[in-house]
TrEMBL record:
PANTHER family: INTERMEMBRANE PHOSPHOLIPID TRANSPORT SYSTEM BINDING PROTEIN MLAC. Keywords: Signal. InterPro entries: MlaC/ttg2D, Tgt2/MlaC_sf. Gene3D superfamilies: Tgt2/MlaC. The keyword Protein transport does not apply. This is Toluene tolerance protein.
C-alpha cells in the first residue's frame, strides 16, 4: 500500500537524468543546484521528451549510473549481509539491484502529471562515510499543496567528493529504509545472499516476460 501511494512521487523524483543517452551527466557540485538541475533535465528530456519508451529507459539508466550512488544504496539495503558476502555475490547483487530499479521505475513514466520541483532548503553535515547534504524540495502542480521531498546527497570520498543521491524522503518516509526492510525480509526468508540473488533473478525475468 505504501509503495502504491508513493509511486507517482518516486516516479518523478527517480526519473531525473541526462540530456542524451550517449552522454554522462555534468551536474553542479552545489547540492541545491544539483537537485534543481536534475529536475530540469528529468522534466524536459525524459518525462516530457518526444522520444520512444526505450529511449526514455536508456536515459533513466544514465541517471542511475551518474546521479545516484547505487553502490552505496545496494550495500545499505542488505545491511550486515554485505560484509559476509563474497565478492561475486556482491557484484551480482549490485547488478540485480540496479536492473530491478530500472524495471520498477522505468515502467512508471506515465505517472508524471506535470509536477515541478522547487528547492527550498539545504542542510549539510560531516559524516564518517562522506559529507552529507539534505536538500528539501517542494513537488507539486501550481495551485496545489506541495509535497515535501528531501534528497539525501553524499559526497563520495572515493570518487573525488562527487555527489550522489543515497535516499529520498517523501513526507518523512525514507525510500532507502523502505527498500532495506523489503530486502532484509527476503534475506531472512531465503537465509543467504545467494537466495536473495535468486529471488531477484526470478523477479526480473518475470517482469521482463510480462512486459513482452
Amino acid at each position: 500500500m505504501l509503495r502504491r501511494a508513493l509511486a507517482p512521487v518516486f516516479a518523478l523524483v527517480l526519473l531525473l537524468g541526462g540530456t542524451a543517452p550517449s552522454l554522462a551527466l555534468d551536474l553542479p557540485k552545489d547540492p541545491g543546484a544539483f537537485v534543481q538541475e536534475l529536475s530540469r533535465y528529468a522534466i524536459d528530456d525524459i518525462l516530457k521528451a518526444d522520444v520512444s519508451q526505450q529511449e526514455r529507459i536508456s536515459r533513466f539508466e544514465i541517471l542511475l549510473d551518474n546521479a545516484f550512488d547505487m553502490g552505496f544504496i545496494a550495500r545499505f539495503v542488505v545491511g550486515g549481509a554485505w560484509n559476509s558476502a563474497t565478492p561475486a555475490q556482491r557484484t551480482e547483487f549490485a547488478k540485480l539491484f540496479r536492473d530491478m530499479n530500472v524495471i520498477n521505475w522505468g515502467s512508471r513514466f506515465d505517472e508524471y502529471g506535470g509536477q515541478r520541483i522547487q528547492v527550498v532548503n539545504v542542510q549539510s553535515q560531516d559524516s564518517r562515510g562522506g559529507r552529507l547534504h539534505e536538500v528539501t524540495t517542494a513537488i507539486g502542480n501550481e495551485g496545489d499543496k506541495a509535497m515535501v521531498v528531501v534528497w539525501v546527497l553524499r559526497e563520495n570520498p572515493e570518487n573525488q567528493g562527487r555527489l550522489g543521491v543515497i535516499d529520498l524522503k517523501v513526507e518523512g518516509v525514507s525510500m532507502a529504509q523502505t527498500f532495506r526492510s523489503e530486502y532484509l525480509a527476503v534475506l531472512k526468508s531465503t537465509g543467504s545472499m545467494d537466495g536473495l540473488n535468486q529471488v531477484l533473478r526470478d523477479k526480473i525475468a518475470s517482469l521482463n516476460n510480462t512486459r513482452g
